[in-house]
Amino acid sequence: MKGLKTIAVIFTAALAMTALQSCDNDNEYIYTGAYPNAMVTVKKTADGGVYLQLDDKTTLLPVNMKKSPYYLDEVRAFASIRFTDDDSNGYTKAAYVQYLDSVLTKFTAPDLGTGNDEAYGNDPIDIVRDWTTVVEDGFITLRIRAPWGNSSKAHYINMLRNTNGENPYEVELRHDARGDIYGPSRDAVVAFNLKDLPDTGGKTVKLKVKWKSPAGTKTHEFDYRSRGTQPEE
């Protein structure tokens, strides 16, 4: 997976065709031409194992994985899964992982006031409404779209917190194209861990996302609830 400050282009067509190949004997992926059918959080357990979080309430024991293939403790990822009748070992369900492909997973960044443009950029970007744009498990995952003339050039994407003193659940998406502002629009997917936002205390609140699109400033509200208790590991 790329470093936390860069985001690599994920082409829509390639998204359904690229499978993660196992680099060791701990995970057995069998690519069967399956398309991703879920967005999950890949999580490490205290004893070095792994499980998947499917949504706010559903956890999965991946029967063909012994450990996480990622260095971060939690990574959002596209997955193709099929449920099995295996013992779920305390998790909600057992599942066989046919496909796994991580997306860039970051933490939110602090608001710097007048220094935001210099630190985070202010280039136009859009959020695409599809099944990959979702708020769950304490993360906001977004499919984004922006002019991206040089597909090998890294763009910088950040989500700023504490941007509105009257609403702690208002955040702002920022895009620094590093001068790469011309050419065809391309899609990418990025996820942000919302753990630095105030705990909602078990309630569902409106998470307001603000961003600068090519057509001007836009906002959208998502239902958000702080992460609940996870299964014992």
TrEMBL record:
Residue span, NigD-like N-terminal OB domain: 39-103
Keywords: Signal
Signal peptide range: 1-21
UniProt lineage: Bacteria, Pseudomonadati, Bacteroidota, Bacteroidia, Bacteroidales
Keyword Signal (UniProt): yes
Coiled coil: none
InterPro entries hit by this protein: NigD-like_C_dom_sf (IPR038143), NigD-like_N_sf (IPR038179), NigD-like_OB_dom (IPR024299), NigD_C (IPR035376)
Protein's name according to its UniProt entry: NigD-like protein
Annotated NigD-like C-terminal domain residues: 110-224
